[in-house]
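Lab notebook, bench 4. The sequencing result for the construct came back, and we need a structural model before the next group meeting so we can plan mutations. Quick request posted to the team channel:

Model the 3D structure of this chain.
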Amino acid sequence: VLNRIGSGKYSQVYDGINIVNDKYVIIKVIKPVKYSKIRREVTILNILKSHPNIVKLLDVIVDNSSRTPSFVFEKINHLDFRILYPKLTLHDI
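Done. Here's the predicted structure in C-alpha cell form:
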C-alpha cells in the first residue's frame, strides 16, 4: 500500500501495486458494515462490469486476522471534478 487517497462513510481508499504484474491498483478497505451491503456492492459492480464508465473490480480480499474485506480495483487516469466541471459545455452536460 502506497498512500491513502480518500475516505468515506463506509471505507478508506488507498493506492497499491499488484506485485504479480507491477500494475497500480486502488484498494478500498471496507469499514465494519452489514455483510449484505458488501454483497450488494459486489453484485452491482459485477452486473455493470462491461460498461465503459464503470471501474473494474479485480478482486475481493478478506484479511484473515480482522476479517475486514477489501475491494481491489483497476487504477484509471482521471481529472478531479473541480477541474473537469468548469470545462464542460452544454453539449457535454
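The mean pLDDT is 89.
Will bring this to the meeting.
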